[in-house]
Amino acid sequence: MDEVEVVVAHSERATLRVGDVFLKVDADQARIDVEVEAMARAPVPTPKVLWRKPPVLAISALPGTTLGSLGGPSTGSSEAWAAAGAALRTLHDAPPPPWPGRAGRSIAALAAELDEECASLVTSGLLPADLVGRNRRVAEAALRPWTPAFTHGDLQIAHVFVDGDEVTGIIDWSEAGHGDALYDLATFLLGHEDHLDDVLAGYGADVDLDVIHAWWSVRSLLAVRWLVDHGFDPFAPGCEVDVLRSRM
């Protein structure tokens, strides 16, 4: 008999695995709506939707393994990382969905959220003021106009599956929509800067590295307090706080 594996669980949503089926439980049906629609539109491999009965979405498991995780060792050949870069380029070149995703927040809204979060990080004592201030300055390069692209919105390396040197699928599309393509690239490479050249070789386009660095700072600054509040550890080696320190 298959066991029930808790993949991730917090107060907003949970993902369970039973054999070759993933069960996503989410009280916010809008997120599930986005996920299903984005997977139908995406020009890259995605899991098959098996059934949906709110608040549960059942999808098939993907073949292969992920390229790693934040704070953990990265796996896969240079060719596999390049294949992931090529898959991202295919996604970003596709007609974008009509709705804004996580990577499509307005510059003004993002700047306001970032300033509020930076103040909270310092006043709460979670992070020192010099670390926050330096990364807020680095983050400024991300706050510029961009051409809307089809973005995944939460493209952690744990969401990309490969088998050998082939991408077999990308999971977790609930933050997808139109937005800044460089946000996806930065999210994918967060904590794994050593694979930047491989990914960009597959991506095949000129990329402003200052913007990539800026998105690393933005994502990490906005994530630290949420992660702590939901039982995760952004202070673990190689995770968000180390990413912030690397900008010093």
Give an overview of the whole structure:
The structure is a single chain. This protein has 248 residues and is of the alpha+beta class. The protein has one domain: Aminoglycoside 3'-phosphotransferase, Chain: A, domain 2 (Alpha-Beta Complex), CATH 3.90.1200.10. The chain is built from eight helices and ten strands. The chain has helices at 29-41, 78-93, 107-123, 129-139, 181-189, 196-203, 209-229, 240-245; strands at 4-9, 13-18, 21-26, 49-53, 56-60, 65-66, 149-151, 160-163, 166-170, 177-179. A five-stranded antiparallel sheet has the order 1-2-3-5-4. A three-stranded antiparallel sheet has the order 6-8-9, covered by helices on one side. Strand 2 and strand 3 form a beta hairpin. Helix 2 (78-93) packs across helix 6 (196-203) and helix 4 (129-139) crosses helix 7. The longest helix is centred in the last third of the chain and has 21 residues, at 209-229. The protein is globular and about 50 Å long.
Give helix % range. Answer: 40-55%
Tally of domains? 1
Computed Rg:
18 Å
Number of β-strand runs:
10
CATH class: Alpha Beta
Oligomeric form: single chain
How many helices does DSSP assign? 8
Mean pLDDT: 93
In CATH, the topology is named Aminoglycoside 3'-phosphotransferase, Chain: A, domain 2
Q: Could you state the CATH homologous superfamily?
A: Aminoglycoside phosphotransferase (APH), C-terminal lobe
Provide the β-strand percentage band. 15-25%
**Global structural class:** alpha+beta
CATH architecture: Alpha-Beta Complex
- What is the N-to-C succession of helices and strands? EEEHEEEHHHEEEEHHHH
- Shape descriptor reads globular
Cα-to-Cα separation, first versus last residue: 51 Å
How do the strands line up in the largest sheet?
Answer: 1-2-3-5-4
State the major sheet: 5 strands, antiparallel
Q: Return residue spans where pLDDT drops below 50 for at least 5 consecutive residues.
A: none
